[in-house]
Amino acid sequence: MKKTTIIFHPKYFEVYASDPAAAQGRLDGAYKLLQTKGYEFIEPEIAQEDDILLVHTKAHFERIASKSSHLLTLSLLSAGGAICASEMAMSGTFSFGLIRPPGHHASADSCWGFCFFNNIAVAIKKLLNENKIKNALIVDFDLHFGDGTNGIFLNEDRVVYHHMDSITSLENFLNSTDNVDIVGVSAGFDRYINDWGGLLTLEDYKRLGEILGMFASHHANGRIFSVLEGGYNHRELGDCIYSYLTGLEQAIN
Fold first, then answer.
1. 8 A C-beta contact, residue 80 and residue 46
2. What is the total count of domains within the chain?
3. What is the mean pLDDT of residues 247-253?
4. For the whole model, what pTM was predicted?
5. What does 86-154 look like in DSSP terms, one character per residue?
6. Range of the domain at 58
7. One of 56, 105, 144, 162 is an active-site residue; which one?
8. End-to-end CA distance of the chain
């Protein structure tokens, strides 16, 4: 079975802020589990300022840069992870960005919710600007609505943003959605039964992977990439990600 490539950089282990997404040890368990399961890991390159300015204002970039050089580096590296994941998807490789900081609450000129730059928006906009795609679908299954992503693409006809209300609603939405060139997934795992949301099981995450994998297989030439957003149960985050990837891989293969 064709397996997903994990986009990861050792600097993602580093603590860059005082919020839950930046907490010490948040990614350690997921990293170890995915290694144990035999996934290949590759390191992304850092995003450049011009990449960030595709979706953010210069003033916003400078505000993040003024907070600390460490935060700026990690934020650029996270955006770089999303770019790498999207480029791998374009080449036919399933990819998952085990990245942080998250990004879906970062708007063009502001941010909140543990986010600084909008990773998935940067990646999709870069593909559009380079004429590698003509359109895209972004599905967000994080517990929280990605107001930043939605706002960035609100007047962009080539990109559809959809935040999942429930698995059934996602299925209904995808059943009525036309073909796209690529699917980007804001993969937040804070709906998990043992996380903030208390809603979804490991089997639910596997089902999510199957649903999105089937859509990508039939309606996006198999092009799909995912990037980590929320998910704060350090011990079980890896299990959630692995369940999702298992469903995705089974659906596409």
1. yes
2. 1
3. 88
4. 0.97
5. HHHHHTT--EEE--SS--TTB-SS-B-TT-SS-HHHHHHHHHHHTTS-S-EEEEE-SSS--HHHHHHTT
6. 5-252
7. 105
8. 6
